[in-house]
Amino acid sequence: MADNDAATSTAVAGERERRGFFGRILLFVRQVIDEMRKVVYPTRDELTSFTIAVLVFLAVIMAYVNGLDWMFTRAVSWVFGSG
């Protein structure tokens, strides 16, 4: 298997050297299309659960930052007095 991969990569490298500018662009587009065929898209249920998880995570982080901001505001007001 490794010998086959090495031979393939050598062939691809040789092909790349022989191709012109537009040939390399065409090769790139073909490789992108091949990779896009491998993509597994999430189902509707997965997408919904991921979206909810992200929104909950953002709400928790926002609450944490808001709490830190409130604490630092109180600490600065205590140290320097509230104008």
UniProtKB/TrEMBL annotation:
Alphabetical GO CC annotations of the entry are: plasma membrane
Entry's transmembrane regions: 47-65
Signal sequence residues: none
Q: Does the keyword Chaperone apply?
A: no
Record-linked InterPro entries: SecE_bac, SecE_sf, Translocase_SecE/Sec61-g
The entry's localization annotation reads: Cell membrane; Membrane
Q: Which domain of life is it from?
A: Bacteria
Q: How does it sit in the membrane?
A: Single-pass membrane protein
GO MF entry, a single one? protein transmembrane transporter activity
Keywords noted in UniProt: Cell membrane, Membrane, Protein transport, Translocation, Transmembrane, Transmembrane helix, Transport
Q: Which Gene3D superfamilies match?
A: Preprotein translocase secy subunit (1.20.5.1030)
- Pfam families from the UniProt entry: SecE (PF00584)
Q: Does the keyword Protein biosynthesis apply?
A: no
Which Gene Ontology terms describe the biological processes this protein takes part in? Answer: intracellular protein transmembrane transport; protein secretion; protein targeting; protein transport by the Sec complex
What NCBIfam families does the annotation carry? secE_bact (TIGR00964)
Subunit note: Component of the Sec protein translocase complex. Heterotrimer consisting of SecY, SecE and SecG subunits. The heterotrimers can form oligomers, although 1 heterotrimer is thought to be able to translocate proteins. Interacts with the ribosome. Interacts with SecDF, and other proteins may be involved. Interacts with SecA.
Q: What is this protein called?
A: Protein translocase subunit SecE
